[in-house]
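Intended use. Records like the one below are meant for learning the mapping from a protein sequence to its folded structure. Do not use them to infer anything beyond what is encoded.
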Amino acid sequence: MSKARDGFAVAESAAPEELVGQTFELLSVIENLPDLVVILDDGGTVLFANAWASNMLGAGSPERLLGVPFKTLVDPSQSATFDAISAGRFEALPIPTEVRLRKFTGDFAVGQLSQVQSVKLFGKSATLLVCRDVTSERVLERRLQLSERLAAIGTLAAGVAHEINNPLAFVSSNLEYINHELQRVAAKDPEASELIAAIGDASQGAQRIAVIVRDLKLFSRDQEQSEPVDLKSAVEWALKIVDVQLRHRCEVRRDLQPTPKVVGSEGRFGQLFANILLNAVQALPEGRPLSESWIRVATTTDAAGNAVVEIQDTGCGIPEAQLGRIFDPFFTTKPVGKGTGLGLTIAHAVVSAARGHIDVQSTVGKGTTFKVVLPGIAATGTALATPPTQLVKPAKARLLIIDDEAAVAQGVRRMLKSELEIDVLQDPRTALERLNRGDLYDAILCDLMMPGLTGMDIYRDVRKSRPEVIERFVFMTGGVFTAEAQAFLDSVPNTKLFKPFTMKDVRSALAPMVAQRVTVASEAR
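Structure written out for the chain above:
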């Protein structure tokens, strides 16, 4: 038989002195549980804490928790949870329920309350709390959510970029064609110079749109893809992304020198520097003159051939006690709801994945400097000769343009019609039939993504039926937003043109094929 005594089940025959021993024995078992276990007196002060509570809260030892009002360890935003516990209104608490607990180190741990109940400890009323540490799980969940969000943004960005680049391609090519034609009559018609200036302004606007879309497409890149990356370009992209916040808060001092390329993902490096820049601008006190609030961004190469990026601010600085924890997940000095505490964690992860390191120096009241050092790629090989940009030959070479966007194809045709014999086909199936039946073309300018039959499908089919033709393909694309398309472009050696492109780009891409063009005596059309 057994009976309940002092909140614990004990043997019926147990003597009072045995109860004390059994209580201490039970507390010894609790001491080694892998969950936070604390017992509070009726005023909410810690009477008992096990070793896991000490580890979870960063106390150093359980003894340091004794006598501490537990409310001081609970995030102020969740004080209602603690008030319900203190008042004994356990029924008002959904179990399990999550709480944010302030650690002795200043940052937070996430706990899941699994048990809250009244007990008696040595004859006195007390409250038992059992809490599982779920901090690591929540960090993983936040990272997964962030990855999913970035993937969704990437898909959206790729789709938007593709839809913008197609019309932008024919707008640009037609502006270039109009400018070319106006140049011919400018000497005879004085009013043509004003039209040429207007066309030039419109072309600059189209180029600005192209740059914005190009930057947007960074989000659509495979974030794990490793390739040679120009860090100077990644830094410039990050500055554009956060420009709206920078321009109203501080002066930006740029010292961007060329650096060796590094291996990694251009998108991830852009996020890395954007996170550091956002951290810097948020550290600047509001209301100061711009001459006193500045951020300096520099790219250099060190003596070992590493690429170095420094971002320095004149913000509030980071206390020395917190400097060692700024890369910890969820660590933030911002008010609740003003930051996730993951920005610098992600930055550190990106640098580590690229086998680099990130150093931080800070002085309270004066500012902070982040220094990112990444191993550079040793320069190898020689530069390729620039292909000729003129395609003028005594006899015209033949070009086939395959694009479901008629305006894109017509824009190219207008500019090259005096240099090449051009066929334009919007239906990819008709184009495939023409190629398979033996029609000869010196070059094939083919859109990558088309409804019904893609440029990839045409290429694969022709590779089987006429393998000698596939080297004449040049692929056009307004944006790659499928893994299959990206893998295809990575695997084929053919030249790629990314919309919007200039006629100089097209001529350069076609020049090698036209220079080695086939001779056609006669051919059925």
